[in-house]
Design brief:
The protein is of the alpha+beta class and 369 residues long. Helix content is 44%, strand content 15%. The chain folds into 2 domains: 133 residues, Periplasmic binding protein-like II (D-Maltodextrin-Binding Protein, domain 2, 3-Layer(aba) Sandwich); 187 residues, D-Maltodextrin-Binding Protein, domain 2, CATH 3.40.190.10. Helix 11 packs across helix 12. The N and C termini lie far apart (76 Å). The strands form 3 sheets. Strands 1, 2, 3, 6, 9, 10 and 11 form a 7-stranded mixed beta sheet that branches. A two-stranded antiparallel ribbon has the order 4-5. A two-stranded antiparallel sheet has the order 7-8.
Length: 369
């Protein structure tokens, strides 16, 4: 009888122990899932997910859940609410402060210097290394690179009598006055150029406007120069006058209201109905992905430009600059996406594996450029 009781007790203990082991294994397996949110969709998301698959293959047991088409504002709100992803992506250098400054992304210094870290200067160029720091805090790794320049529709410019793109801000305004047309009801039909933040995701905001006029963000003492540098005043005055003269017949309020309606009716950003491709706008500030999109509006992320001629007669030039900033003509902007680990991540170790893997995946970065 005693033997039966001992056997029964042993069986119960074994079952409990087995359950604990099973639960522990399940918990460990669950903890190896890393959730990644990105703003990508279409072909870009395919490239992104292919890179994630390579990371999973190289790290057995690691599972990555990739969710695309999530904008930065939604990611930031979710992280701060405590229900965000392990990793999220910020498009462009100018948004890094959102994630670093608020503490939404964790500091990466310890992980970078650790046994599975990264030699930043040997892996990334100097601009990329600098771009992933905000207020002396490194909370991000750079992701791919983007080259921005001034795109112009050669056919539309030629029709208006122009053989070359505008080089100065005064010329840009004059070109736009001639290229902009209106419908019978007074609404804008086609626009020469839009100095309007929010037209598309990578359009005229203070970063580009400041570059045109050579305005400085920081002074010699590292204090913000936004209020002290007179070139900012020149930049915003030019923007105000541009909208008034080109779209409002000299009236800024009228011009801005017409612009709001024009922007609201814009075509999609990533395809054949993009305003630049349809001729709705003649000149635009944009990045290197435009070339492939002119070739194949639907599958542009996978395009080999050497084998695919453009369907649009376009040119690329330096961004127009103010007269007192003429030495800067011919320049553009090189930027990076950024990605970081959320402050609420429960699996920082595996999140770092994924973050590092995406940042150093040469196949992904080469395809993206």
């Amino acid at each position: 009888m005693m033997k039966k009781r001992l056997f029964a007790s042993f069986a119960v203990v074994a079952m409990v122990a087995g359950s604990l082991v099973a639960a522990s294994s399940a918990s460990q397996a669950a903890s190896r899932t890393v959730v990644v949110w990105s703003p990508y969709q279409g072909g870009n998301l395919d490239l992104w997910n292919a890179a994630i698959k390579r990371i999973e293959t190289a790290n057995p047991g690691l599972s990555v859940t990739s969710v695309g088409n999530i904008d930065m504002a939604k990611s930031l709100a979710a992280i701060n609410a405590g229900n965000g992803p392990d990793i999220s992506v910020s498009n462009g250098n100018g948004n890094l402060g959102w994630f670093c400054g608020t503490g939404a992304w964790q500091k990466l210094n310890t992980l970078i210097a650790g046994p599975n870290g990264i030699n930043m200067s040997a892996t990334f160029n100097a601009a990329a290394v600098a771009s992933s720091i905000s207020n002396h805090v490194r909370c991000a790794l750079p992701l791919y690179s983007e080259v921005f320049a001034f795109y112009f529709n050669k056919d539309l410019l030629a029709k208006a009598g122009f053989t070359n793109p505008p080089k100065t801000t005064n010329e840009l305004l004059a070109y736009s006055q001639k290229l902009t047309t209106f419908n019978s009801d007074g609404s804008i039909k086609t626009a020469g150029f839009l100095p309007w933040a929010g037209y598309y995701g990578f359009d005229m905001d203070s970063m580009w406007l400041g570059q045109m006029f050579g305005a400085k963000w920081y002074g010699g003492n590292q204090a913000a120069a936004f209020a002290s540098d007179p070139r900012w005043t020149k930049a915003f005055t030019w923007q105000h006058d541009f909208i008034a003269k080109v779209f409002g017949g000299g009236n800024f309020d009228k011009g801005s209201k017409l612009l709001v309606k024009f922007v609201a009716a814009r075509g999609g950003e990533w395809g054949a109905d993009h305003d630049f491709m349809t001729g709705r706008v003649a000149m635009k500030w944009d990045a290197n992905w435009m070339g492939p999109m002119f070739c194949d509006p639907d599958g542009w992320a996978m395009v080999d430009l050497a084998k695919c001629p453009s369907k649009l007669n376009f040119g690329i030039a330096g961004f127009p600059v103010s007269a007192d900033n003429s030495a800067a003509y011919g320049s553009g902007v090189v930027g990076q996406g950024q990605m970081g680990i959320s402050k609420g991540s429960k699996n920082v170790k595996d999140a770092w594996i994924v973050l590092k893997g995406l940042a150093t995946d040469t196949k992904l970065n080469a395809a993206w450029d």
